[in-house]
Amino acid sequence: MKLECGHEPAETRGVGTGHAVKQDGSRVCYQCCRDEDLSQMNRGEPITLYLNASGLRGAPMERRNKWPTASLFTVKNWPGTLTIAPTAVRYHEGWGFGRPYPVYHVWFIGPDDHVWWGRNAGDNEVLHCRRTRERVTHA
Predict the structure, then answer these.
(1) Per-domain residue ranges for the chain?
(2) DSSP state, 8?
């Protein structure tokens, strides 16, 4: 089965579909999803990515540290074909619905050599990201 991007769906194990569905309903392969995410970031448009904190499983004391070790986290797109290492992570607790919830602020270098910032709140991996004005200079 060919997708709208012209490629075949990715091989999957488990519950994956092998393709992503865009807002217009068209289906694209995971690699094209990565390319579109990179293009969106290069245009400086806000993007929703995902904060993976699986490194915290091996370091439970880091969970409540205000500045947890950034290497315990990764920023990814939905299919996991785009992976970015954060340069800094900040933790604090928010308050809502009668209880505290975790809030993470994440900084990373985007594909456009700008510093990007993202915010994750609650018991999920959703990371709302935007480009900052700061640009990284390479020596």
Answers:
(1) 45-135
(2) P
